[in-house]
Design a protein that fits this description.
Distance between the termini: 31 Å
Order of helices and strands: EHEHEHEHEHEEHEHHHHHH
Strand order of the largest sheet: 3-2-1-4-5-6-7-8
Oligomer: single chain
Largest sheet: 8 strands, mixed
CATH class of the largest domain: Alpha Beta
Strand content: 5-15%
Number of strands: 8
Length: 266
């Protein structure tokens, strides 16, 4: 099985490195094309992968093609890729707003297409990736794809109609979480804690709270209530967040990202 990457930026590079580290494939079985020749040369030296001179060459020499380019250049990339696409090749796209139907129209109705939405924690092997497939993708094809996604974290198959929801839920939410972390760290520093220690205290607490939600059978609201002793310190902070409309602010951020995704979809 040969794997081709068209684009090796932040997300494409994260998937490439994650899958290599997880042993999903060997460097010798990977072909990469990127318009940035300097980046391409660095990847060749550091990872030992094969580099391609053009998109058509990458597609022709690969069984699985990962499209890791920005949505606005799909109109340029897909026609060149289409020339070498055959019915047995699996195409995986991670572009926001680019529907499976759009890709099928460019590559042909018989093409095998998987649409994914990973997020940036893929760079540390903790992506939450949403996965949708077209009718041509078999369970055997999906088994090949799942191995790639497991190399960068976790994945769930969803109906493509939920992709806009995923943008707000996991695609954009790392940025929201960074804002929360940054604010807590800054508050700690303002109250005398060293920056490095503040980062550790805040980040470990965020990770721990998230794991509590994932591993516990207790409702999320009840988990929050359990931390709040009547008349204690936590309830004071929680009430301040309620007064500031914290929940509505987060929902507003979700809606803004999801609506932007809808407006971009083609």
């Amino acid at each position: 099985m040969k794997y081709g990457f068209i684009g090796a930026g932040n997300m494409g590079g994260a998937i490439l490195r994650g899958a290599l580290k997880a042993g999903v494939f060997k460097a010798a079985d990977v072909n990469v094309f990127d318009a940035d020749k300097v980046k391409l040369s660095e990847l060749e030296k550091s990872l030992g992968i094969n580099v391609s001179d053009n998109i058509a060459q990458t597609v022709a020499s690969s069984d699985v093609i990962i499209l890791a380019v920005k949505p606005q250049i799909f109109e340029l990339v897909l026609p060149e890729a289409a020339a070498s696409i055959t019915e047995d090749k699996i195409v995986i796209s991670m572009a926001a707003g680019v529907s499976i139907n759009y890709i099928e129209n460019m590559l042909g109705d018989s093409s095998k297409v998987i649409r994914i939405m990973p997020n940036t924690p893929a760079q540390v092997g903790l992506s939450m990736t949403a996965v949708s497939r077209n009718v041509n993708i078999t369970d055997e094809d999906m088994a090949v794809a799942w191995e790639i996604f497991k190399g960068i974290g976790f994945a769930e198959e969803i109906d493509e109609s939920l992709m806009d929801c995923v943008i707000g839920t996991s695609g954009s939410s790392p940025a929201f979480t960074y804002m929360y972390i940054e604010s807590l760290v800054n508050a700690a520093v303002e109250h005398g804690m060293e920056y490095e220690k503040a980062v550790k205290f805040v980040c470990r607490s965020v990770i721990g709270a998230a794991e509590m939600v994932l591993q516990s059978d207790i409702d999320i609201e009840q988990l929050r209530i359990n931390v709040c002793s009547p008349g204690g310190t936590t309830i004071e902070g929680v009430n301040a967040l309620f007064d500031a409309g914290f929940g509505d602010i987060v929902k507003s951020a979700f809606r803004a990202s999801a609506e932007k995704s809808k407006s971009m979809t083609k």
